[in-house]
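Sorry, any thoughts here?
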Amino acid sequence: MLRLRRTRRTAAVAAILLALAACESAPADRPEEAAGTLEEIAERAGCAPDVQTDATELRQTPCATDDGTYVLTTFATDRGLREWLNQSKDYGGSYLVGRRWAVSGEAGTVERVRERLGGRIETTEPHGAQPSGSAGHH
């Protein structure tokens, strides 16, 4: 019984330490991650939405702001976001990712939009990319 209590106490302390470490690792000047509808996130980014895709699983709008041009996409589920990101890796690029939303655009643009929306940046190289100078097979 004593061993079980120590294990629970140790697990609780470990969880608290991990939570504190996560809080300390986020820069103080980074905004809280955006949440909400496509329109709410677009407004926070300074984008006037012109919804191009309005489907059950995702909604998408192009944005042109002082930060640059990019595409803002919101998702119905976390799984939908992850599947979309996995497929986008075929094309490479920079993505600003939040909970159920993503911004795709040039690296500098994504960095600037992050100052408004928070989130994390994921950058990928195209899968079919070959080092320069190498010959492709036909």
